[in-house]
Write a structure and sequence with these properties.
By secondary structure, the chain is of the alpha+beta class. It is built from two helices and seven strands; from the N terminus they run βββαβββαβ. It has one domain: OB fold (Dihydrolipoamide Acetyltransferase, E2P).
């Protein structure tokens, strides 16, 4: 996992999970300190959920040099699972990026 919504496939391809947003983990990208802390927690939770497991991806686009894809694990939508766990927020296409500092 790179962060709570982006991971790297074994072949090196970076994949952003479609329809969700995780808090930023980098100081130069986060809007507040709390976002960084939440981002680190989201990354740990996503790693625990996905590490070493086989996922299926359906490529739906590209953004910032990453593949954007719907990701499933055992037939379940990974993005929806992470939202349900409170790890990430939904981010529908065309909507403003969620606020992690409010």
């Amino acid at each position: 996992m790179i962060d709570g919504d982006t991971f790297r496939l074994d072949g090196g391809e970076r994949v952003r999970i479609a329809g969700i947003d995780a808090p930023e983990t980098r100081v130069d990208r986060a809007k507040c300190r709390a976002e960084i802390e939440r981002g680190r927690a989201a990354t740990r939770a996503a790693v625990a959920h996905l590490k070493g497991r086989t996922v299926s991806i359906e490529r739906v686009g590209a953004s910032y040099g990453r593949t954007v894809a719907r990701v499933t694990l055992d037939g379940r939508d990974v993005g929806q699972d992470l939202v349900a766990r409170g790890i990430v927020k939904p981010w529908p296409l065309g909507h403003p990026k969620p606020d992690w500092c409010g």
